[in-house]
Amino acid sequence: MAQELSEKGLLRMEVEQLKKEARNPRAPISKTGKEIKDYVEAQAGNDPLLRGIPEDKNPFKEKGACRIS
């Protein structure tokens, strides 16, 4: 699609996208940072990277050793 548009058309699309982004409501980082921190701390108990995966639910657990007779 981008190949079919002229440079003017591409610039017009970029300006429209920038207008949309400028209309998005903004929040101060002091507020959003605290909200993100609280969310991460609340979800830490469910994070398998922090607490690990139970052995019985681990799909990557080795089933057994390879034995050659």
From TrEMBL:
Q: Name one GO cellular component term.
A: heterotrimeric G-protein complex
Instruction: Pinpoint the G protein gamma domain residues.
Output: 1-69
Q: Which Gene3D superfamilies match?
A: Transducin (heterotrimeric G protein), gamma chain
Amino acid composition bias (Basic and acidic residues), ranges on this chain: 53-69
Report the transmembrane regions from the record: none
Main localisation: membrane
Molecular function terms from GO: G-protein beta-subunit binding
One biological process term in Gene Ontology: G protein-coupled receptor signaling pathway
What Pfam families does the entry give?
Answer: G-gamma
Which family is it part of?
Belongs to the G protein gamma family.
Q: Under which name does UniProt file this protein?
A: Guanine nucleotide-binding protein subunit gamma
